[in-house]
Amino acid sequence: MTHEHDTAEAARGAANQGAPDGAPESASDTAAESAPNTALESAPDTAPAGGAPAEEAVGPEAEPVAEDTSESTDHERQLEHDLEELSAKAEKADEYLELAKRTRADFENYRKRAAREAAAAQERGVAKLAKELLPAVDNLDRALEAAQSAAASDGGRGAGQDNGTTTLMSGIKLVHDDVIAALARAGIEGFSPEGEKFDPQQHEAIAQHPVEGKESGTVIEVYQRGYRLGELVIRPARVVVAA
Known about the structure:
Elements (H helix, E strand, L loop, with lengths): L1 H17 L8 H16 L12 H99 L5 H27 L2 E4 L11 E7 L9 E6 L1 E4 L2 E4 L1 E6 L1
Parallel strand pairs: 2-6
Antiparallel strand pairs: 1-4, 3-6, 4-5
Helix pairs in contact: 3-4
């Protein structure tokens, strides 16, 4: 073993003496030193640390894009659905508003019509009552005229008789005035159209006489006064007209 070792050392020494200065000691050492550097330079920079292929790193990045597109589509559909619901509700609101307006207009028309009908019914009731009372008023008028005539004819007689006639006249006149006042409070008023132009809507001609100085168609005498309630003639005045 000692002889073989010495022989190997002598061979390496001879080889070192024959090589130029600065040259590598052997070709094998040079190849060993340069091999690691060449392998590092030729290796791709983008290789993953775990040794997985580069194509596998691209795959997971494509999936979030598809998910975002799907979410955007669902959101747009939801918005369209919400808009359709809002439009339908707006149309319903317009229909309800129009119905409310029509109902209000109908109610206002009904209220006005009911008020007119109530006023007309009240007017008819007052007119009917007045027609029932007017004969009594006419009788009071005649009684008052008779009492006045009696008082005028008894003017030259005793004071006791005159006092009785005056008392009767006062009583009749008091009742007459009360009845006329009650009719006036109900809106009924009497009219006596003497000297006016004859109007068939308000007058009733019972006679016609030619009168000098009077225009034809003029009322020259009122036989019975008329009564009216506003524009409604309850009873026309009975008159004598100039021919």
